[in-house]
Write a structure and sequence with these properties.
- The protein is built from 10 helices and 7 strands.
- The chain is an alpha+beta fold.
- It has 2 domains: 9-101, Orthogonal Bundle (Arc Repressor Mutant, subunit A); 113-205, 2-Layer Sandwich (Nonspecific Lipid-transfer Protein, Chain A), CATH 3.30.1050.
- A hairpin with a 2-residue loop joins strand 3 and strand 4 (140-147).
- The two termini are 35 Å apart.
- The relative contact order is 0.12.
């Protein structure tokens, strides 16, 4: 990896994550482990050789690691190390900066549910700590839970969620930017299980994004 050759901690951090696509790889892994093909799908426009190089560099820097899932899955996934997870707050600040000062999104720009759900992670949620809600958006599934009164979000399905909410991507995006009330979002969704738990989870998502998505 190229280096700035400066003692400054900012320059040293950028030595590790300052290359194009590096922080977006970290973004893709914030909600849980991903296969190489998942990362490729979640990073539209990235060349395959460049993604492989970024993963190699991030592993060498101790930000990302590889792990083989046990049978019957038997696939290799990439996940963040402790150093990688420590970038969550940095990416949160960059998201907030991008909402305030970044250029307006263009109609042709890509959007994924996971990217915008990250804005809701850490928001206050009234759901009990022992309850989880599985959110299904298109082909993606997420588990919404609680840690110390704050919303947690991870990719994947839940074995026994309190509720399962299935909604179209457009409903999710409109809920996140506050253009749709929680009640209306529930009516546009299928809710199986505890309606109160579903309501609490959707309350935490409402208005989490302050800039237009498209």
């Amino acid at each position: 990896m190229r280096r700035y050759g400066q003692v400054c901690p900012l320059a040293r951090a950028l030595d590790v994550v300052g290359e194009r696509w590096s922080l977006l790889v970290v973004r893709e892994l914030l909600l849980g482990p991903r296969r190489y093909t998942d990362l490729l799908a979640g990073l539209p426009g990235v060349p395959t050789n460049l993604l492989a190089n970024r993963l190699k560099d991030l592993q060498a820097a101790g930000v990302v690691t590889q792990r083989a899932l046990p049978p019957p899955t038997a696939v290799t996934v990439y996940e963040l190390t402790e150093a990688g997870r420590a970038l969550r707050a940095v990416l949160g600040e960059l998201r907030a900066w991008g909402e305030r000062y970044g250029p307006e999104p263009q109609e042709q720009d890509a959007v994924r549910p996971a990217w915008v759900l990250l804005n809701a992670s850490g928001r206050p949620v009234a759901m009990p700590a022992d309850r989880t809600v599985e959110l299904r958006v298109g082909t993606d599934s997420f588990v919404l839970g609680v840690d110390d009164g704050r919303l947690t979000i991870r990719r994947g399905a839940e074995h026994l969620p309190a509720a399962t909410v299935t909604m179209p991507p457009e409903t999710l995006y409109r809920l996140l930017v506050g253009r749709l009330t929680v009640s209306r979002a529930q009516r546009q969704s299928t809710v199986d299980g505890d309606n109160t738990a579903a309501r609490h989870a959707l309350d935490a998502l409402h208005g989490a994004v302050t800039a237009p998505l498209m």
